[in-house]
Amino acid sequence: MKINLNKLFPFLSIRIKLIVAFSLLSIVPLSIIGIVGFYNNMSAMREAVLGNLKHEVDLVNEKTSNFLSNIEFQSITPSWNGVM
């Protein structure tokens, strides 16, 4: 299918037609590159956030385990000064 720009836009000069054509030819690839880059960055950020959250959960889990172990140890061992 051949598009004749002279019939479609007879009132535009060749200069304007070239500016429009080259603008469209440059905007389309830049838009595609921008969209792909956006989704790649979003994926990388999601992985970084999930890794950070997993680390934080492991840290809280370890602190809780240590706290409960300490409570268990204190409840099993007798008081050193004779006061319970």
Q: What's the arrangement of secondary structure elements?
A:
Blueprint (H helix, E strand, L loop, with lengths): L4 H4 L5 H63 L8
Task: Write up this protein.
- This protein is mostly helical and 84 residues long.
- The chain has helices at 5-8, 14-76.
- The N and C termini lie far apart (94 Å).
Task: Estimate what percentage of residues fall within beta strands.
Answer: under 5%
Structural classification: mainly alpha
**Biggest β-sheet: count, sense, barrel?**
none
| Rg, nearest Å | 34 Å
Number of helices: 2
- The general outline is rod-shaped
**What's the number of extended β-strand segments?**
0
Return residue spans where pLDDT drops below 50 for at least 5 consecutive residues.
none
Give the overall pLDDT as a whole number: 87
Residues in helices, as a percent range: over 70%
SSE ordering: HH
Oligomer: single chain
Measure the end-to-end span: 94 Å
Count of domains? 1
Please outline what is shown here.
The chain contains two helices and no strands. By secondary structure, the protein is mostly helical. It has one domain (13-75).
